[in-house]
Design a protein that fits this description.
The structure holds 2 protein chains of 2 kinds. Chain A has helices at about 5-25, 30-55, 55-85, 95-120, 130-145, 150-170, 175-205, 210-215. Chain A is mostly helical. In chain B, helix 3 runs parallel beside helix 9. Classes of the chains: A mainly alpha, B mainly alpha. The interface of A and B includes residues 6, 7 and 108 of A.
Chain lengths: ~220, ~325
């Protein structure tokens, strides 16, 4: 196995590890830092794939990933938690060790699902498709188990990271137009959700989304 | 079984049992240096053992015969474990008798007898320590098994000889599965040997003890054997970590020259590993006992991830 593909495999494993770390993290500030590291890993792996396969447009998407997911989004989120004054997200719906066990089951499912796809794919990164899928599902699990709005948004963003990684590893990335569109979507999405946070807190004096269920009944 | 295998076996057993307290002394000495203390010197465990062997044993009135024989069982089990783990050579006489899973069983046997002896006297601290030890043990065991299973999957065998020879002959490269299992193994090593994030070996506060609480009632030669056994256990674990994750330089097959080189290489690796342990114990704080399940759960997670990543990436 060439060294570059070993390196990509290592970065993929780190992404999987980070997904689990985010799943187990209780503090929102550390959650955002983990999201930063995830973006960094993603940017590095995209750049490595770009240099091994001579796909020059991947360099641009690596740069885009870096600027958006390591610099801009974490900055917006960190500013938001400072203004909203939320630090902890202790109330996960399932306790953390059981979430981890569910996570392991999800990884097994994702790996099995990805096996036929990776047999069909011809890219050098095809074995990492399973990991990308596992990252998407783990982020989804995080969105389900967290009750605070901000950690759900971080889960949503890391799901997008997983999707991006899946796209790079199956087909060497989406067309540039699509990538720019998704990047803009994510950025605008975070801004709009930020406005929502303030509205939710003003209405319920808490960021706990379970209050929304009660609001419906009234 | 070849003559070489038998000789290598006895040489390794002899060296392991004699050198084990030295490793413990080295770890303690490094820790003292890192904490800006002068330290007792690396031969302190030997001095302690000699002192304990010269004393008269005191045994509680309520002790059953089990209490007396447990130190010998413990010492025997740890010697057997140290004999199975390939540290000097892979072609060991006993290696056909027990594989990686049996090794985990030997550690479990020792743990059960230690806990029984701790409960035997009927003191509060003994029972508490035994319960805590079983809690940590039953969580650490699956993680250790996962680590060994990953290594077994790579080499298609549970025999430690085959595992270590396969791992030593692999191409040099990045193996994410081994990185994950390496972290899992380190966490199991810390928990099983009562090192710092889980238990504090230097603690004098009975309420926070795990391993120390179980041996509070032992004295003289019994205590010496128990302490010696736990230093052999630490040695066996470190040797197992070296054999699984940095196996280069170990003597393979009937190779006398390899044996001559294997010893200095092993000593260097042990010195580095001991220093690493001391660093970990210096920079980390002891966790609350209720955090231990989470710690071991993380170790298990790393072990399982290593195995799954091996399946997916084939590396």
């Amino acid at each position: 196995m060439p060294l570059s593909s070993q390196f990509i495999n290592l970065l993929a494993s780190i992404l999987l590890l980070l997904a689990f770390a985010m799943l187990s993290q209780r503090r929102i500030r550390s959650l955002i830092r983990l999201f930063m590291v995830q973006g960094m890993t993603l940017a590095v792996s995209t750049a490595v794939i770009a240099s091994t396969t001579n796909q020059s447009h991947l360099y641009y998407s690596a740069l885009l990933t870096f600027s958006l997911k390591v610099v801009i989004l974490p900055w917006i989120l960190l500013r938001m938690i400072r203004q909203l004054n939320v630090e902890w997200d202790v109330e996960t719906l399932i306790n953390i060790p059981s979430t981890m066990l569910v996570g392991i089951a999800i990884v097994i499912v994702a790996f099995n699902l990805a096996l036929p796809i990776s047999h069909l794919a011809g890219t050098i990164t095809r074995s990492t498709i399973g990991i990308a899928m596992a990252c998407v599902l783990l982020s989804l699990l995080m969105m389900i188990t967290r009750s605070k709005a901000i950690s759900q948004v971080v889960g949503f963003l890391s799901m997008e990271n997983g999707l991006f990684f899946a796209a790079t590893s199956t087909t060497y990335g989406m067309p540039m137009v699509v990538e720019l569109g998704v990047a803009l979507d994510v950025l605008v999405g975070v801004l709009i959700l930020g406005v929502f946070f303030f509205q939710i807190r003003e209405k319920f004096e808490s960021l706990d989304l379970r209050h929304l269920e009660k609001a419906e009944e009234e | 079984m070849s003559a070489f295998g038998l000789l290598a076996q006895f040489l390794q057993l002899f060296l392991t049992v004699l050198l084990a307290p030295l490793l413990l002394g080295w770890v303690n000495q490094c820790r003292a240096w890192l904490q800006n203390r002068q330290g007792p010197g690396i031969d302190q465990p030997y001095r302690k053992l000699r002192k304990l062997f010269q004393k008269d044993a005191v045994i509680a009135e309520s002790a059953s015969p089990l209490f007396r024989i447990v130190p010998y069982i413990l010492f025997g089990a740890m010697c057997l474990a140290a004999a199975i783990v390939p540290s000097l050579a892979t072609d060991l006489g006993f290696s056909e008798a027990a594989d990686a899973i049996a090794l985990v069983g030997i550690f479990a046997l020792a743990r059960i007898f230690m806990s029984l002896a701790a409960m035997d006297i009927g003191t509060a601290f003994g029972g508490m320590g035994a319960r805590r030890e079983m809690l940590v043990g039953f969580l650490a065991e699956p993680a250790l098994l996962m680590v060994l299973f990953t290594a077994s999957l790579i080499s298609q065998s549970t025999s430690l000889t085959v595992i270590v020879e396969t791992l030593a002959h692999r191409h040099f490269g990045i193996y994410p599965s081994l990185a994950f299992t390496g972290i899992a193994f380190l966490m199991v090593l810390l928990a099983e040997n009562a090192r710092i994030p889980v238990d504090n070996p230097a603690s004098h506060l009975e309420l926070t003890m795990i391993h120390e609480a179980m041996i509070l009632e032992y004295s003289a030669r019994h205590l010496a054997l128990v302490e010696w056994a736990s230093s052999i256990k630490l040695f066996a674990y470190v040797a197992m970590g070296i054999a699984l994750f940095v196996p280069w330089g170990i003597a393979q097959a009937a190779d006398w020259l390899g044996m001559a080189f294997a010893l200095p290489i092993l000593i260097v690796k042990l010195l580095v590993a001991g220093f690493g342990l001391a660093v970990i114990e210096t920079v980390m704080a002891k966790q609350r006992i209720f955090r231990a399940p989470e710690f071991m759960g993380t170790a298990f997670l790393f072990g399982v991830l290593g195995m799954l990543v091996h399946f997916l990436l084939g590396a």
